[in-house]
């Protein structure tokens, strides 16, 4: 996909103890300005690689905004998309060989794997933070390294519990619970009524990583401590694994091989009564022309991810940010494209078209009407504000990115849930895998 000249002629408060909360970065920065622009280089043209859309409105508005950028600047932009699983390896190859797309919209802490291969975007990030209420803490952690912004956070495909309201009420709950033990009780009752839960335990970039990390941290477990020492083999981790092993007994069969699309399909087919997912399930049902899907949409509801014994949100969401690669011939054009796409005039309509599929990293966008026009969207609003970061509570870098890419936490939960290993054995094996990356 892309637009060329020829086409156009045709047509908050700081967090403590590692908890990422509502800390806002960039407000009042001396370098932040009310206006900023970058003059594209003579003859500039851009190639952008991003993840393949899960909701139609995301891609449609992204391309419309891209077309507006080309009309305004005369810079042709080609946009390619890849499956979620393929973006990360393609970005790594581009960094290593020194050629490829000028901009890649990738996952989590990918920029921290090859920071010296990227164009710093500090001026752009400080401008946006100063203009739009500041960056949430997790966004800053993902975007910055050594005092420089090496990535520009786009937001996160936020995850909430997606459930059938009527089936949960039949199970004895007015809304799906957020307490871990009540979640387990509700899951048992849903299964007894023929509406089991289903959560991805395959190597799913978003769904598998998201809910398993959330449960691990909710029990107080974590891969590393603040000094990046591997502490995964702990009683807290074992407790989390024992809990998920019991929860898994109430899942629909097959979740050990589920990737990101599987729970969407199972939910819309009526095979599961609850899952953890982005708003894409509701989007698909509510935007369908099928009367049966419209009826399902009326029965869908959302609630924020469960809270464990630690007593506060421990959410992980599929974070995405843009990287400008150092081999680009047109760094100014690349930064001007990103500035344009992140400005309110483009960003808010894009969020609205995607029905809040991406939760924002900048506080000003919390007032986007998309979050309140339909109350079912509201739980997704604060996903980035509430989230922790992969590699919590250590530093982001090669080790955290590599451990995430190796699905250590997801595999650990899958092994324990399936009975391939005891919870203790699964924790021990996962810790050994993590030590390969965190070895000093």
Automatic annotation (TrEMBL):
Q: Specify where it is mainly localized.
A: periplasm
Give the protein's recorded name.
Extracellular solute-binding protein
Protein species of origin:
Kaustia mangrovi
InterPro entries attached here? Bact_solute-bd_prot1 (IPR050490), SBP (IPR006059), TAT_signal (IPR006311)
Is Signal one of the keywords?
Answer: yes
Keyword tags: Periplasm, Signal, Transport
- Similarity annotation: Belongs to the bacterial solute-binding protein 1 family.
GO cellular component term, pick one: periplasmic space
Q: Where in the cell is it found?
A: Periplasm
Question: Domain of life, per the record?
Answer: Bacteria
Q: Name one Pfam family in it.
A: SBP_bac_8
């Amino acid at each position: 996909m892309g637009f060329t000249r020829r086409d156009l002629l045709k047509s908050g408060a700081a967090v403590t103890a590692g908890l990422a909360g509502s800390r806002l970065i960039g407000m009042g920065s001396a370098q932040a300005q009310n206006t900023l622009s970058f003059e594209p280089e003579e003859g500039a043209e851009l190639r952008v690689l991003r993840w393949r859309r899960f909701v139609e409105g995301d891609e449609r508005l992204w391309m419309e905004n891209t077309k507006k950028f080309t009309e305004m600047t005369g810079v042709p932009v080609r946009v390619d998309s890849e499956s979620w699983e393929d973006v990360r390896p393609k970005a790594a190859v581009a960094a290593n060989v020194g050629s490829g797309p000028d901009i890649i919209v990738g996952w989590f802490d990918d920029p921290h794997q090859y920071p010296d291969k990227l164009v710093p975007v500090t001026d752009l990030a400080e401008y946006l933070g100063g203009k739009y209420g500041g960056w949430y803490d997790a966004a800053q952690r993902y975007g910055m390294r050594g005092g420089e912004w090496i990535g520009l956070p786009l937001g996160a495909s936020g995850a909430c519990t997606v459930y059938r309201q009527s089936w949960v009420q039949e199970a004895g709950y007015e809304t799906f619970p957020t307490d871990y033990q009540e979640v387990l009780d509700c899951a048992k009752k849903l299964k007894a009524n023929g509406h089991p839960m289903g959560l991805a335990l395959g190597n799913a970039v978003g769904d598998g990583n998201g809910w398993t990390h959330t449960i691990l941290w909710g029990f107080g477990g974590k891969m590393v401590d603040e000094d990046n020492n591997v502490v995964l083999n702990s009683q807290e981790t074992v407790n989390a694994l024992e809990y998920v092993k019991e929860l898994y007994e109430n899942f629909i069969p097959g979740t050990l091989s589920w990737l990101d699309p599987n729970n969407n399909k199972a939910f819309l087919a009526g095979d599961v009564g609850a899952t953890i997912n982005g708003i894409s399930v509701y989007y698909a049902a509510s935007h369908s022309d099928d009367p049966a899907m419209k009826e399902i949409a009326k029965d869908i509801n959302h609630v924020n991810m469960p809270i464990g014994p630690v007593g506060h949100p421990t959410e992980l969401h599929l974070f995405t940010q843009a990287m400008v690669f150092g081999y680009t011939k047109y760094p100014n054009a690349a930064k001007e494209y990103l500035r344009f796409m992140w400005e309110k005039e483009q960003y808010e309509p894009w969020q609205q078209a995607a029905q809040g599929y991406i939760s924002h990293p900048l506080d000003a966008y919390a007032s986007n009407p998309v979050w309140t026009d339909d109350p079912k969207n509201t739980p997704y609003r604060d996903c980035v504000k509430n989230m922790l970061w992969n590699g919590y509570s250590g530093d982001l870098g090669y080790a955290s990115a590599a451990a995430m890419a190796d699905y250590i936490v997801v595999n650990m939960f899958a092994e324990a849930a399936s009975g391939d290993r005891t919870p203790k054995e699964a924790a021990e094996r996962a810790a050994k895998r993590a030590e390969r990356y965190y070895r000093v």
